[in-house]
Amino acid sequence: MTKILAVANQKGGVGKTTTVINLGASIAVHDKEVLVIDLDPQANATSGLGSTEADSCGIHSFISGENSLEECVVSTEIEGLSLIRGARHLAGTEIELASQDEREFFLAEALSTSDLSNYDYVLIDCPPSLGLLTINALVAADGVLLTVQSEYYALEGLSHLIETIKRIKAHWNKRLKIFGVVLTMYDKRLKLSREVEEEADKFLGKALFSTRIPRNVRLSEAPSHGKPVILYDAYSSGAKSYMSLAREVLSR
Amino acid sequence: MTKILAVANQKGGVGKTTTVINLGASIAVHDKEVLVIDLDPQANATSGLGSTEADSCGIHSFISGENSLEECVVSTEIEGLSLIRGARHLAGTEIELASQDEREFFLAEALSTSDLSNYDYVLIDCPPSLGLLTINALVAADGVLLTVQSEYYALEGLSHLIETIKRIKAHWNKRLKIFGVVLTMYDKRLKLSREVEEEADKFLGKALFSTRIPRNVRLSEAPSHGKPVILYDAYSSGAKSYMSLAREVLSR
Ligand SMILES: Nc1ncnc2c1ncn2[C@@H]1O[C@H](COP(=O)(O)OP(=O)(O)OP(=O)(O)O)[C@@H](O)[C@H]1O
Ligand SMILES: Nc1ncnc2c1ncn2[C@@H]1O[C@H](COP(=O)(O)OP(=O)(O)OP(=O)(O)O)[C@@H](O)[C@H]1O
Ligand SMILES: [Mg+2]
Ligand SMILES: [Mg+2]
User: Fold this and answer.
1) Dist. CA A62 → ligand 1 center (Å)
2) If DSSP states are collapsed to H, E and C, what string results for A122-145?
3) Separation of alpha carbons B69 and B93, rounded Å
4) For residue B229, what is the DSSP state?
5) pLDDT digits over A117-171, tens only?
6) Which of A194, B34, B250, B251 is the most buried (most CB within 10 A)?
7) Nearest CA-CA distance, residue B69 and chain A, Å
């Protein structure tokens, strides 16, 4: 049974894209099939996986029903990791979608009429907002994977994000649940990191993955080479932490 | 003559809010009057300045014309630094605005009918997107201050942001210009930081401020105390760099 996970947080720069790319790659090397969907107009997951933005046969034409899943899917350097590419003009989609009926269901509709049986996991990279693109991801998903940066503002926004998830579950997607929460850019030497960890543990309990993603410069260098960190520097603390997270995800 | 600056970048987590709060405070201590407008539904600038979200008399009622500027402005712990508070339900505003006529002009309209003569600078904190809220800020502003994190994805998004600014200038706001670009979270020990600096210098030339904002943990601790860094730890490298940036801004 394919698991569709939205990787979301309206706070910007908290490691959503880095998690989609590297968790996706780490799951794929466990002999699984993973599909990454780049729903962010910045198209960072697309370039971080070495692909170029889609003029056609990308997320835009998939959501609108112009192209099928098979026409849009491209491969990456990792066997078992496939991608539906993002595009900058997706930013205009949000304003376009706003005036349509069923505007929250476009992605859910496109996925439910596609054959996902080849995939064990679908990871959706969301933009930093609670606008229509992220709402589309939450309506289409089975679960939400929250990335929480070990910083004050990131923690502050968490309750609002959880409220939004509850609202989406009540109105549009009964099966939506919080699949898990991962602390990113964690530095055990910093008091701030430990304080955020304590709060997140109290607030989230079992939903919090025990894997912490450390701040590791190799994670921020890898995208400029268009590779997941496991191909760029497999022995780095960043690569090892995403392998550990993949094992936790596979066991849930 | 009041200068209205939008602090913008669709890339998330690049230091927009940190710059609005700390540049604002550093300009204010040079015997200037500064107004911060929190246009981000996350309302981080509001909490980072020690204020609580506005139910009424905040950015929402100011933009809609329900309340005047004088009714919405609140003071902060820094003399000369005032604030129009943000609010979470602002996220719904973008979807609401989408169907209105003149939807790009709401903030410009509210500011042009207000008395700004008390203020030397107005700094608008933008959300991490190129949606209607950021467009409203760019239409209302005299200039844009871009914060660019010293990382690959942040640099990648720059050309798209500059294209958007040119489009806004051509269609809706003839006076809009790039006021300046500041590199944030700069770490001179990292090759990535130096590479981003080289690219930014080539791409932006004189628009690039010579001040670099270093990565400094005191900047990320200050918001949890609701204070600008100049009140939290005035001798930190973070505080000193924003004072240096303020001097550069005042000289432009
Ligand atoms: N654990 C980490 N250690 C060091 N750098 C990291 C780590 N995780 C992410 N980064 C870097 O931090 C920046 C922000 O990460 P990323 O772009 O993945 O966040 P995001 O939540 O997807 O951002 P946005 O909100 O803009 O979509 C990027 O430059 C990335 O390379
Ligand atoms: N120079 C710096 N050194 C260390 N930490 C920083 C620095 N600048 C910002 N931060 C921290 O990095 C995180 C992102 O910064 P900030 O929230 O200001 O970015 P933003 O662009 O406003 O984010 P968003 O896109 O979500 O609005 C925050 O937790 C902040 O405290
Ligand atoms: Mg991202
Ligand atoms: Mg911000």
Assistant:
1) 26
2) EEEECCCCCCHHHHHHHHHCCEEE
3) 19
4) H
5) 999 999 999 999 998 999 999 999 999 999 999 999 998 899 999 999 999 999 9
6) B34
7) 27
